[in-house]
TrEMBL record, chain A:
InterPro entries: AAA+_ATPase, ABC_transporter-like_ATP-bd, ABC_transporter-like_CS, ABC_transpr_MalK-like, ABC_transpr_MalK/UgpC-like, Mo/tungstate-bd_C_term_dom, NA-bd_OB-fold, P-loop_NTPase
Protein's UniProt keywords contain Cell inner membrane: no
Keyword ATP-binding among record annotations: yes
Sequence ranges assigned to domain ABC transporter in this UniProt record: 4-234
Organism from which the protein derives: Actibacterium atlanticum
Name of this chain's protein: ABC transporter
PROSITE patterns xref list: ABC_TRANSPORTER_1 (PS00211), ABC_TRANSPORTER_2 (PS50893)
From TrEMBL, chain B:
GO terms for cellular component: plasma membrane
UniProt protein name: ABC transporter permease
InterPro entries per record: BP-dep_ABC_trans_perm, MetI-like, MetI-like_sf
Domain ABC transmembrane type-1: 72-262
Organism for this UniProt entry: Actibacterium atlanticum
Cellular location(s): Cell membrane
From TrEMBL, chain C:
Protein name: Binding-protein-dependent transport system inner membrane protein
Gene Ontology annotations for the cellular component aspect, listed alphabetically: plasma membrane
One Pfam family matching this protein: BPD_transp_1
Subcellular localization(s) per the UniProt record: Cell membrane
Keywords, comma-separated and alphabetical: Cell membrane, Membrane, Transmembrane, Transmembrane helix, Transport
A biological process term (GO) from this entry: transmembrane transport
Annotated ABC transmembrane type-1 domain residues: 69-278
Bilayer topology annotation: Multi-pass membrane protein
Transmembrane segments: 12-37, 65-94, 106-123, 158-178, 211-238, 258-282
């Protein structure tokens, strides 16, 4: 069980309020991702839940019991750190056993859980090695193993993949998602990478300057971002945001069109410009179009076989049903 | 990556480095060699380098005359005692500075180091008086306390830089894993900090062993360590080169050997973490 | 970074060290200040009453004062200059690929472990003695008249002895720093057309600046209070009386505690000026 509830939680460091009053509920079994640019308070929020920081005011409850003053170890949560935080002087086995040893679990049970975790995480052959002898991905798995054996109410992940190379990251992403499917335990995951947020989350919490901008499923955020910040943050490549007369045509201060919602043509269309760079990814092509009179650069995502090159004139037509409109405050107009 | 170096370059480097190294080491080597000569050979003109009749006679004379054993024992107790005292007081302080830093941590550290700059002579007489009042003059415990105090800033600094290198996330992980403060110190911090503590210990033993202001001024006969033992040779007796050399060798040998064994750790500690 | 609970625990753990050092600083300092305003001759009548700033005036106006300040500065400055310059050169040499680097390091570090009384005695008698010293033999070998080192060239001799003791320290710290220099930076400079000397000036030396600062700071702390080297070699004669040594003589040899204490206050002020200056630099380096 792991339903986590934050009520009017605030956090100040000295006179600096990094988190203004904040309310959030994470349901049992949910995979929640806190995402936002660096310095947005997402890690602080996670550490408040973990108990590694004191809240300045407000309450945190876990499964309906207030936990605001409970020390970290007693909250029944397990955390996977960005640096993995493995104990360098202990073997993999001892690392994984450590939380159980602290909890006074008997040795037979410890070994049973270690074997199970090692098997699930492909660590069986490495149990007697020291962390220094493992690769980045293996260390990551040991950190997860150490978290699993505690059978926590919820897992907390603090940017766990940011130290891995791109290929490994995709693999670990999948493993963590599978782990969640299998354990059905609440997971809270902090990242600055919106791709991780989109691919893994049941619920995404977008933060900026300590304030929750929007909470919702990945597709909700993609389809109806509530303001220009979320619109620009979720989705890759980024949504094109256009201001001025063109936006006024739609009765809005700003309109947003995702690169994949633009039709390109060599002959005709609503907007036109010159191709500055065309990036071929094989499956897709990203065109960066300049001189449109709309914005510095418009990004278009089109199929992999178009052959526009630098300097070519292109015409673009937005799909009318997926144009996002925002008012002068940057808020979504329905 | 560095490129392959020609054999010739390497030979030149090696020759130059060894020449300089031997030149720097020479006074020590010469002292050790002289300690095995007879007094006549020690002042022979021209000097003899290796071709002399090796003898242990000087060591015998020095031992017999000045009770080397007691000085050595005093040095060991004073250097060791002040180091252990210092470590006991410095470990908690450095721990809290490294892991629970506040805005004032840096100021406190700098202030501590600045006490090290307090000129000893400026406070010699007051300390002398206090020592008489407290009955600490010419006692091992008194010197232990003074040497502990003068080296405390350095111990705190060194430990601080070592502790600082232990990632805070690891201690947080331990806390999340249910370790109490005590368990955190026993199972995580201490094993990780042992190399750092060990080199701090070593450096402090060396500094205390070689300290020559307080040890000369606050001791007479009873508690005098090896620094005083050697200083007694500054009289015309110093002209008996072979005996002087034997005494010198006996005074520096323990620390030289200790230092050589641990020079790698020492260097990292000496830099106060300012040089990686 | 931490919770309230750990913060109060931290304060408690820091307390013994802070209180001890505070006591170590304040108690003798107060006593020194107290004595400095008194005529106090322990062997000739003891406490002879308050004299205001007499001791301070007498100490500065004594003919030995300014020379001792100059001597102090020459010794500290000379040793710093020699150890830093030679230390950089030696560090570069030791950083070259060679056979037996570990052994050479051991040879070079050795003087650091030698107690100052020993090194002073050995240098004084076995090397600098004008009759039997090794340097005298060397001079004679080349047909020159042996130098009476500690009387004719007393200051340079002391600077040399102390430099020998501290060169290992400077060398090893600078060597550690050089080893951390990314060789790609030097290769980039080489590609950019910088010859060896310019590479040293523009890349290596700036990289070492932090290490050099540390060397200067730590050595200054120890050099300001050198004692045994002078005590054993010249006993303060032949213009080798540093400020510390002068005070030492006033207090212990002429048993004039009041005068010595006033000198002590001057020395403390001087040390504090140096300290503030150095702390600024180190403080800056701490942030980086």
């Amino acid at each position: 069980m792991g339903r986590i509830q934050l009520e009017n939680v605030t956090k100040s460091f000295g006179n600096v309020e990094v988190i203004p009053p904040l309310n959030l509920t994470i349901e049992d079994g949910e995979f929640a991702v806190f995402v936002g640019p660096s310095g947005c308070g997402k890690s602080t929020l996670l550490r408040l839940i973990a108990g590694l920081e004191d809240v300045t005011s407000g309450t945190i409850s876990i499964d309906g019991t207030e936990a605001t003053q409970v020390p970290p170890a007693k909250r029944g949560l397990a955390m996977v750190f960005q640096s993995y935080a493995l104990y360098p002087h202990m073997s993999v086995r001892k690392n994984i056993a450590f939380p159980m040893k602290m909890a006074g679990i008997d040795e037979a049970e410890q070994n049973k859980r270690i074997e199970a975790a090692a098997k699930a995480l492909n660590l069986t052959d490495y149990l007697d090695r020291k962390p220094g002898q493992l690769s980045g991905g293996q260390r990551q798995r040991v950190a997860i193993g150490r978290a699993i054996v505690r059978e926590p109410a919820a897992f907390l992940f603090d940017e766990p993949l940011s130290n891995l190379d791109a290929a490994l990251r995709v693999g670990m992403r999948l493993e963590i998602s599978e782990l969640h499917e299998r354990l059905e335990t609440t997971m809270i995951y902090v990242t600055h990478d919106q791709v991780e947020a989109m691919t893994m989350a049941d619920k995404i919490v977008v933060l900026r300057a300590g304030v929750i901008e929007q909470v919702g499923s990945p597709l909700e955020l993609y389809n109806s971002p509530c303001n220009t910040f979320v619109a620009g943050f979720i989705g890759s490549p980024k949504m094109n945001l256009i201001e001025g007369p063109e936006a006024a045509k739609y009765n809005a201060q700003t309109i947003g069109v995702r690169p994949e919602h633009l039709e390109v043509s060599a002959e005709s269309g609503d907007w036109s410009g010159r191709v500055s760079v065309s990036e071929h990814l094989g499956s897709d092509t990203f065109l960066h179009v300049h001189d449109t009179g709309l914005a510095d650069s418009i990004t278009v995502r089109t199929d992999g076989n178009v052959s526009f090159k630098h300097g070519d004139r292109v015409f673009m037509t937005p799909r009318a049903d997926v144009i996002h409109r925002f008012d002068a405050q940057g808020l979504r107009i329905e | 990556m560095a490129r392959a170096v020609t054999q010739q370059r390497k030979i030149i480097n090696t020759t130059a480095a060894w020449a300089v190294g031997l030149l720097i080491f020479f006074p020590i080597l010469w002292t050790i060699l002289t300690s095995f000569k007879t007094e006549a050979q020690a002042i022979a003109d021209p000097p003899v380098f290796l071709a002399f009749d090796w003898t242990l006679e000087n060591y015998g004379v020095v031992m017999e005359r000045s009770n080397y054993g007691r000085f050595l024992w005093n040095s060991i107790i004073i250097a060791g005692g002040s180091t252990i005292l210092g470590i006991i007081i410095a470990v908690p302080a450095a721990w809290s500075m490294a892991f629970v830093p506040s805005k004032r941590t840096k100021d406190i550290l700098l202030w501590m180091l600045s006490t090290k700059m307090l000129p000893a002579v400026g406070v010699l007489y007051p300390i002398y008086l206090l020592f008489i009042k407290l009955g600490l003059l010419d006692t091992k415990i008194g010197l232990m306390i003074v040497l502990m105090l003068i080296n405390l800033p350095i111990i705190v600094w060194m430990l601080y830089t070592y502790f600082k290198e232990i990632p805070g996330e690891i201690l947080e992980a331990a806390r999340m894993d249910g370790a109490t403060l005590r368990e955190e110190v026993i199972h995580i911090l201490t094993p990780m900090a042992i190399p750092g503590i060990a080199s701090t210990l070593l450096l402090n033993v060396i500094l205390a062993w070689n300290e020559a202001f307080w040890t000369l001024n606050l001791t007479a006969a009873k508690a005098a360590p090896l620094t005083a033992f050697i200083a007694s040779y500054s009289s015309p007796e110093g002209l008996f080169y072979a005996k002087l050399s034997a005494a010198s060798t006996m005074a520096i040998a323990p620390i030289l050997i200790l230092g050589w064994f641990s020079q790698k750790q020492l260097v990292s500690g000496l830099t106060f973490g300012a040089v990686k | 970074m931490a919770t309230q609970h750990s913060r109060s625990a931290a304060r408690l753990m820091m307390a013994p060290a802070v209180i001890l050092l505070l006591g170590w600083m304040l108690v003798p300092l107060t006593m020194t200040l107290f004595f400095s305003f008194k005529k106090y001759l322990p062997l000739r009548g003891g406490d002879l009453g308050w004299v205001g700033f007499d001791n301070y005036v007498r100490f500065v106006t004594s003919s030995a004062f300014w020379p001792s300040v100059v001597t102090t500065l020459i010794i500290v400055g000379g040793v710093l200059a020699i150890t830093v310059v030679l230390g950089v050169l030696l560090a570069i040499l030791l950083n070259q690929p060679m056979w037996g680097q570990g052994m050479v390091r051991i040879l070079v570090i050795a003087p650091f472990f030698v107690m100052p009384t020993v090194s002073a005695l050995v240098w004084k008698n076995m090397f600098m003695d004008p009759n039997y010293g090794l340097l005298a033999h060397l001079w004679k070998f080349f047909g020159a008249t042996p130098v009476e080192w500690l009387s004719q060239a007393s200051l340079p001799s002391i600077v040399m002895i102390v430099s020998w003791q501290w060169l290992p320290f400077a060398t090893l710290i600078l060597l550690t720093a050089i080893q951390s220099l990314d060789s790609e930076q030097l290769e980039a400079a080489e590609m950019d057309g910088a010859p060896a000397l310019k590479r040293f000036g523009y890349i290596t030396l700036p990289h070492l600046s932090r290490a050099i600062t540390v060397v200067i700071l730590i050595q200054t702390i120890f050099l300001l209070s050198i004692f045994a080297e002078i005590f054993v070699t010249t006993g303060g004669a032949f213009g080798t009386k540093t400020l510390s040594y002068l005070i030492f003589q006033r207090v212990l040899e002429s048993q004039n505690v009041g005068l010595g204490s006033a000198g002590g206050v001057y020395a403390i002020i001087l040390a504090n000026i140096v300290a503030i200056f150095l702390m600024r630099i180190v403080g800056k380096n701490l942030d980086a």
